[in-house]
Amino acid sequence: MSATPRAVTRLVEAFSRLPGIGPKTASRLTYFLLRGNQQEALMLAEALQALHAQTQLCSVCCNISESDPCDVCADDRRDGGIICVVEEPLDVLAIENTAAFRGRYHVLHGHLSPMERVGPDELRMRELVTRVEAGGVDEVIVATNPTLEGDATAVYLTRLLSPLKVQVTRLALGLPRGGDVEYADRMTLSEAIAGRREISI
After folding, report:
1. Check: CATH 3.50.50.60 for 6-53?
2. In the 8-state DSSP scheme, what is residue 176?
3. How far apart are CA 84 and CA 193, in angstroms?
4. CATH number corresponding to 78-198
5. What is the pLDDT, as a whole number, of residue 2?
6. Of 47, 63, 130, 195, whose CA is between 20 and 30 Å from 54?
C-alpha cells in the first residue's frame, strides 16, 4: 500500500507529462498546490478547464483563438497577400511582438520529424496549400525554426508550393541556428523578417 495519496500521485504524474518538467519539479508543484490556499488550486483547475472549452483553431490560419476566424485573419488592415508559416502558436506571438510584420499567418503545429513519426499528414500543410490555391497570395514566408527539422520542413514546403507559382522565402539568418523562433529577441526577429530570402532547392 502506498504512503502517498492517490490524488497526489495522479497530479505528479500529470505534471511530469508536461514538457520540461521532470519528476522532482512535478512533485514540488504538486506539494506547493497542496500546501497553499485551496482557492489558488481551484483557480488553476478552472483555468485548465477553460483552456479547451474557450479556445479553438482558426479555420483559416490554424492558430489557437477564441473566435473563428481569429483576430488576425479577420483584420482587413493585414496584407492577405503575404502568409508567414510558423511551427507553433507561440511563434506567432513572438513575431507579432516585433510589430514588423503586417501580413497573415499559418500555423503548422509542429515540424517534420521522422524520428517522432511526424510526417506531412500530421501537420497543417494541406490547409496551407488550399489557401494558396484559392488565390490572392503572392508570397509565403517560411519561418520554421533554424534546426534540422525546421530546415527539412522548409524544403518540403517549398517543393509543395512551387507548382502554385507563389514566391517562397525563408527568414534571414539573424536567428541563431538550433534556436527556436519563440525565444528570439525583438530586434533579431525584426532583422530576420526584413532580410528574408528566397529558398533554392
Report:
1. no
2. P
3. 10
4. 3.40.1360.10
5. 60
6. 130
